[in-house]
Amino acid sequence: MKVYQTSEIKNIALLGNDGAGKTTLTEALLYESGIIKRRGRITAKNTVSDYFPVEQEYGYSVFSTVYHVEWNGKKLNIIDCPGSDDFVGAAMTALNVTDTAILLLNGQYGVEVGTQNHFRYTEKLGKPVIFLVNQLDNEKCDYDNVLEQLQTIYGSKVVPVQYPLETGPNFNAVIDVLLMKKYSWGPEGGAPTISEIPAEEMDKAMEMHKALVEAAAENDEDLMEKFFEQDSLTEDEMREGIRKGLASRGMFPVFCVCAGKDMGVRRLMEFLGNVVPFVDEMPKVFNTRGAEIVPSADGPTSLYFFKTAVEPHIGDVQYFKVMSGVVREGDDLNNADRGSKERMSQMFVCAGANRIKVEELRAGDIGCTVKLKDVKTGNTLNGKDCDNRFNFIKYPNPKYSRAIKAVNESETEKMMAALNRMREEDPTWVVEQSKELRQIIVHGQGEFHLRTLKWRMENNEKIQIKFDEPRIPYRETITKAARADYRHKKQSGGAGQFGEVHLIVEPYYEGMPAPDTYKFGGQEYKMNVKGTEEIQLEWGGKLVFVNSIVGGSIDARFMPAILKGVMSRMEQGPLTGSYARDVRVIVYDGKMHPVDSNELSFMLAGRQAFAEAFRNAGPKILEPIYDVEVFVPSDKMGDVMSDLQGRRAMIMGMSSENGYEKLIARVPLKEMSSYSTSLSSLTGGRASFIMKFASYELVPGDVQDKLMKEFEANQTNED
After folding, report:
1. Could you tell me the CA-to-CA distances from 235 to 179, 238, 274, 275, 514 in Å, in that order?
2. b/e per residue, 433-460, with b = 16+ CB within 10 A?
3. pLDDT tens for residues 597-633?
4. First-to-final CA distance of the chain
5. Closest Cα to residue 267, out of 178, 350, 199?
6. Full-prediction pTM beyond 0.85?
7. Rounded to whole angstroms, what are the CA distances from 326 to 71, 211, 335, 360, 365?
8. Which of 459, 396, 372, 457 is nearest to 422 (CA)?
9. 490-524 pLDDT, tens per residue?
């Protein structure tokens, strides 16, 4: 295969909602460029994308597919991304290593929630966008309506380059207002017949052409001047203007295609090859030190590994982008993240599961390799005298969690090893071994996301697993001061055990004054502070431990043991067994025995005294509250709001954003357990949401009573 120069390479992310037709378009692009000899079909399970068993089982994309097409001396690296928001990690990764996004729309549905989400990601990363309307042969397709939707949501920057003469089953022709030609196809699609625009379409075509010329001219001062002088631009000048407009996100061209019939695909590739910005025309990338990395073959060799796939009979397939320099087969490179050395023994360019061996790849290009010893997703490999590192991919927070356990407990270790491997393939899976909840928790982007994990675990790894709702990480605290004494005494022949502790507990808040005087049961207790210890609890909040012992009633050497006893009860609160927080404990008196007192005695006395005082101090349960943003079509707003209110949500605000309503609420985590499934069901999959931890807040009284009863019942069962 030819070695492509940086100036001949373009990297493109193919995005779109589920059902937009990305897999079908991929087949058409590969077929037209000669990479494959016949187009596969999803129903026949023989497509280049979606070749993993789990994808064929469920009938939707789970992983991104990296492939390339060669067209007119240019190399287009394309990453076909899953459409479902559950697999957003693949889209985020692709956008970080590509330069332009094609946003595919289903002609019958227009702008969908996936479109909105993907556009938002391109906006965040500053990537050019081309809108591509597909399935123009569907009888429910309404191109004019789709265009109107796009222009309403994204403004005047949306400029059509093509429009169909007719949509529905008779679709077979488009008017191209950049080239001012009519493109038409026979029943088999493929190569178009190019002819003059029919007279009856000329007015409409000229109007759109002028709008396109104007949009192109706006992105370059010289072109703008020329446009004002001549009222027109040459084809090359328009291409230049559109290229600059794309690069600056000053315009979003709209193209037409019918991927299923291979109509419009060649013209799309032509545009991608001729007009889309090259790698070296896009804003530069920076390494972790903030140094600019120029994508030049003359620079030092630096590779960024953005994706790992585990394939049967092969093992790990590692995908990388050449950030600078040239990489050759047999090169020895250093892993900047892990300190190890690697040899690039084999390199390939990809077309899904098909790979073409290459000996050399240059800056800006994308390839893959196998049999690396110690490379993980996100690692950087460098040549001599180069110390680049890249950590630029940030993934959304998880929004669906399940406790996972192996049906056969003896396979737990094997299950954990498999989970860690799978996380290499998809970094949006987060695995947590929770000491607090005493569960292994898998966090993901939605129900589908975790369903695919379960399928792979059971079918690929042969480990039967079970999902449960995770326990909620409640917190316990107190609302008033209370006092308690406890004497631990044990005599069993020889040396005994003796320790007596008197203490006060009270709610802690930042900046509270030192303890002074307390009154309980008509008796006054005056504190004389000898020392204060502030402990920042790893689960949030504080424990403040105050030594107020006078007269040596408890020796100073026993104070750490009392604190240890208090801490052990903070780790298992009396109401629900959850962590306690924000408590001040003052030890003011006690007794010891000259022979029988030891650390264990005082640890147990401190623990019991604290537990009793805590129970008498108006204990309350706190629950985690999350900030939730829901993006929902306006016609479903009422249903979504009612559903949230049924989940104890506090609605914080509403706004309109790009044709969708945005609902902001604060919702207890307990109520969000299966929200992604419910939201999808309520809106027919047309809504999405993000959530982020906000704070801990008191649970309502009825909820607290219920939680305490559940805890007591569980304790009884365990006993």
Report:
1. 7, 5, 11, 11, 79
2. eeebbebbbbbbbbbbbbbbbbebbeee
3. 899 999 999 999 999 999 999 999 999 999 999 988 8
4. 70
5. 178
6. no
7. 22, 42, 16, 7, 10
8. 457
9. 877 667 899 999 999 999 999 999 999 999 999 99
